[in-house]
Input
Amino acid sequence: MSDDEDEVTSYVAACPITPELVQQIVGLTELSWDDPKGTGLAMRGLGWRSDEVPLDPGRFVTGEGHIVYGDGCFAMPFSYSYWVDGEMMQDDFWGLLRGWSSLEDPGPQVFDAHVNAAIDRFAERLGRPEHDVSTEARGRYSWRYAAWRRGGNVLVVGQTLDGFSYHQHEQALVYIGALAEDAPFPTAAEFAGFLSW
Output
């Protein structure tokens, strides 16, 4: 085996969250996410495509290039922290997608900066998060979650492990799901499970 085959390179990839996209997502918080047909019609109405999704089980691709997942919720990753090792990840997959860009060996602060920028972008539209918590650092993981109540739904910007990589890589995502108006917000430790789709 050559040295090149043994090389592991870390990356952070991101797809920007624009003010227009924030406006579109905030509008989707008014929908019942128990109705995949209705939410699908709403996303099609935004011009999002369901015929060019590069990964299953993705439902739609936004105009910017984000992949939207979830039937009973809205889950839209906008940044990934991962490594290319020639085995599980053969190449810089995320950085090669339309609308995405990646940095090689950027350091964990770059991934966190994407999360903080997304939270700031939503705060420009919705005001300060009603719930803003971070997990205690465990190794290299300390994740932030910011949440806003939207009727019987909650909009969350946060970090979690990526299921497609068998939980080896991290993702940052925007999530919309049901949360009763009188229900407490999840704790920082509970958010990763809450964001499952």
In short: The first helix runs from residue 3 to 6. The longest strand covers residues 74-84.
